[in-house]
Specification:
Largest sheet: 8 strands, parallel, barrel
GO molecular function: chitin binding; chitinase activity
Shape: globular
CATH topology: TIM Barrel
Number of strands: 16
Strand order of the largest sheet: 1-2-3-4-5-8-9-16
Keywords: Glycoprotein, Glycosidase, Hydrolase, Signal
GO cellular component, one term: extracellular region
InterPro entries: Chitinase_II/V-like_cat, Glyco_hydro18_cat, Glyco_hydro_18_chit_AS, Glycosyl_Hydrlase_18
Strand content: 15-25%
Protein name: GH18 domain-containing protein
Distance between the termini: 35 Å
């Protein structure tokens, strides 16, 4: 089946592109972004980042103080931030460098309290602009995972509006280019989990953010060990846990494609098969497989496949890759499935794509293929 996959994917992309209103040809400059987690610095120093593959690199993460809502940046962190921006700008002057604020699993969550009052929002906003200018960043990205109630979503909207106003004011006063403002968001604008039922404020997103980084992954994982899953499924014939559902929901909510950037994972999720003879997507499982809490970075997946001589397969229904050997099963995206998703994003008229996370790829194999797959109009 592997040998016919390129043909299947190509036909799929052509059909999709023909059914789309040719929006891709009129998009603003493409976004090819990658988040850079601070903990990968030993394996991937900033000087080793292949900046030719990216238009934007996001340093992850800085977390505001949950009482003052400013940033407590030590001398050592200050040196890291200055080195990060200076190094990347020197390597490639066209690359924009942002820093991402927050991240998953922050305790206590500083955003919910900060966003409730105009005064605390102003303190936070002024602090973000100050950090960006002091350390040479081109902008910032808000990774609030996730506003937990309709009230928090309203506060999120106020925050974005006031942030944009402050960015414009600062740029005018200093005669500098406006800082970029982006946000990492849930795969769908509507929430049925992580709190009460609520929706992102689509109008505030559309009017105030340069774009949103839609996290099109983590649909399945260690929280459900009963069956294997494609954790970044482009399609899912059985549920709404898929990137196509999420992206189309954002479009339907009123956020245009040129404000949407599709998230792509450079890691896989693992399971322990119940029966080694049943090893497709959706097969019975009894627990997590190899890796830390059932997670392997892509470079670890490649090593796992090599070391165990695992069988590599592709699932056309979900547009994903998976490997299996014995009772060990890993679902992930490789260069082939990533190419299909990148082409799909372009055919749908999206702004671009981003990767979580730099340092997880195998010698730039997947990120390089993605960059070359995005077709630039001549």
């Amino acid at each position: 089946m592997l040998s016919i996959l390129p043909i299947v994917y190509t036909l799929f992309i052509v059909i999709t592109a023909r059914s789309t209103a040719m929006a891709a040809s009129r998009l603003p400059p493409v976004v090819k972004a990658g988040y850079y987690p601070s903990w990968v610095v030993d394996d991937l120093p900033p000087s080793a980042i292949n900046t030719s593959l990216f238009t934007h690199v996001l340093y992850a993460f800085l977390v505001p103080n949950n009482v003052t809502f400013g940033f407590d940046i030590s001398d050592s962190t200050a040196m890291i931030l200055s080195n990060f921006t200076t190094t990347l700008h020197r390597k490639n002057s066209y690359v924009k460098v942002l820093y991402s604020i927050g991240g998953g699993g922050i305790e206590p969550d500083p955003f919910a309290v900060m966003a409730t009052k105009a005064s605390s929002r102003k303190v936070f906003i002024d602090a973000t602009i100050g950090v960006a200018r002091k350390y040479g960043f081109d902008g910032f990205d808000l990774d609030w995972e996730f506003p937990e109630s309709p009230k928090a979503m309203d506060d999120f909207a106020f925050l974005l509006k006031e942030w944009r106003q402050a960015i414009r004011k600062e740029a005018k006063m200093t005669n500098r280019p406006p800082l970029l403002l982006t946000a990492a968001v849930y795969y769908s604008p509507e929430f049925l989990m992580y709190g009460s039922r609520r929706s992102y404020p689509a109008a505030a997103v559309r009017n105030n953010l340069d774009w949103v980084n839609v996290m099109c992954y983590d649909y399945h994982g260690s929280w459900d060990t009963s069956v294997t899953g494609a954790h970044a499924a482009l399609f899912d014939p059985k549920t709404n846990l898929s990137s196509v559902y999420g992206i189309k929901s954002w479009l339907k909510a009123g956020v245009p494609g040129n404000k949407l950037v599709m998230g792509l994972p450079l890691y896989g999720k693992t399971w322990k098969l119940k029966d080694p003879k049943l090893h497709e997507v959706g097969s019975p499982a009894v627990g997590v497989g190899p890796g830390d809490d059932g997670v392997l970075t892509y470079v670890q997946v490649v090593e796992f496949n090599r070391r165990t001589k695992a069988t590599v397969a592709h699932d056309v229904d979900t547009v994903s890759a998976y490997s299996y050997t014995g009772t060990s099963w890993v679902g992930y995206d490789d260069a082939l499935s990533t190419t299909a998703k990148v082409l799909f994003a372009q055919a749908l008229g999206l702004r671009g794509y981003f990767f979580w996370a730099l340092g997880y790829d195998n010698d730039w194999t997947v990120t390089g293929q993605a960059s070359s797959s995005w077709i630039v109009d001549k």
